[in-house]
Known about the structure:
By secondary structure, the chain is α+β, with helices and mostly antiparallel strands. The chain folds into 3 domains: 4-208, Jelly Rolls, CATH 2.60.120; 214-265, no CATH class; 296-374, Malonyl-Coenzyme A Acyl Carrier Protein, domain 2. Helix content is 27%, strand content 23%. It contains 10 helices and 17 strands. The strands form 4 sheets. It has an 8-stranded antiparallel sheet. A hairpin with a 2-residue loop joins strand 2 (55-61) and strand 3 (64-69). Helix 5 (213-225) crosses helix 7 (267-279). The chain is globular. The mean pLDDT is 96.
Amino acid sequence: MNIKLPLLGGLTVNEFLRDYWQKKPLLIRQAVPGFKGLLDPQQLIDLACVADVQARLVTYQRKQWKLRHEPFEPSDFEGLSKKGKWSVLVQGVNHFLPTGAELAKQFNFIPHARFDDLMVSYAPKGGGVGPHFDHYDVFLLQGLGHRRWQISTQKDRTLVEGAPLRLLKDFKVEQEWVLEAGDMLYLPPQCGHNGIAEDDCMTYSIGFRTPWYQELAEQFLVYLQDRIEIEGIYADPGLKAQKHPAEISADMLQQVGRAIRKVKWDDEDIANFLGCYLSEPKPHIFFDAPARSLTEERFGQSLQKHGVMLDLKTQMLCHDNTIFINGDAHQVGMGCYRILRELADARSLPASRKFTREATDLLYQWYLDGYLTPRAK
């Protein structure tokens, strides 16, 4: 954490987290030297047309913004430049492109619990999505071409009424840079920004989510409803006649209140909820079981010889002897926990190491579920 990183402009991780993370923007020239991108524009458009891929098409024509979501056909992108400015954005590229997952790994100095995805956007000259702000941290890495970034830390976040995007009504540019291939801009949440393509341009956005407390509270209550058990039923053998039968009585309120106050939770419940919630795949993500699965014995042999790697779409977290994978929790012994924590950290396990029986059994089950696969020979 005290090694100076080119990715952070010569800062150490600790310096970056102390001085910039969630605080202020940081421009880093040649954060990834030699980086030209992982896809060309046509490959990104092809990916946007794949089923189960989340993508958006933003157009600006006749002074009007329009937004379309997937599904797309290749014909949807034909002739757009003749009609106006446009941009295509594809979410979760790390779920479909191994090199995208490897790029995301470079940002492992931020906890996996905060990682959202790698989004890639393409725009021809003049294209963009307009001045806006986001509620998450993002590293904007330039690939193909050049993009002009205008940023503002303004407090006025009034939005354009009726626009299909969250566009800032009165965007006041405070700083401005043109980024070329390998340059990167870090932006904290709620920092206004406007990216404009100077030529055919592709940007790689490594995003880190910041869940709303309201969202977490609502989902925690959903989590609790399957785990609470309050015995008894409502009873009122001492019921008395009321002057107003429509009025809820004080006795009913007190009895029901006593029952509801029996709902309890502790830090372990919160940790288990967070692990399950944050590792839960997005609704459009599905896993495919192996077409011809190995027997448990053959899988064990492959594990020893080659190791395993997580499927690109798998989310894996851990806490206090509990492993969370794709929304499920598994409490394990310490030996197994150490092995699976290594898998969660690195997203792969090397060969030639000792696996406990407990770890092998879990890994085999996850292999059958499509959550991981043996490493290539």
